[in-house]
Specification:
The structure is a single chain. The protein has about 120 residues and is an alpha+beta fold. The chain has one domain: Muramoyl-pentapeptide Carboxypeptidase, domain 2, CATH 3.30.1380. The strands form 3 sheets. It has a 4-stranded antiparallel β-sheet, with helices on one face. A two-stranded antiparallel sheet has the order 1-4. The protein is globular. The termini are close together.
Amino acid sequence: MKVIPKDASYYLADYLHHEEFKCKCTHERCFVTIINPKCIMAFSTLRSILGRPIVLTSGFRCPPWNQFVGGVERSTHQSGSAMDFLYPSNYDKEEFIKDCRATFDVVLPYENYIHCNVRG
């Protein structure tokens, strides 16, 4: 795991800025981002497969924010090992799910978004 300051401003990978991955809360005790490098690598592979932008709606979440958004108690978002994406427009939904499964360890498709995470 890698820990960086929440106010850091740089790219975690090609096409993925820290701003997109960090916790979205404004909680005073939320001042770092935990990153699992395997998650970032999986994102990069997925982005290469697609050849188009992916909208990341949730990456790292601090425990209070995870609870606020209704995340499960031991959410992999809290270890920087998960990402939620919107389904890309003009791209087959089933094909996107297949591509996610080729790069992430766990893929949970929902109606409006898809949750992807890595293990370890």
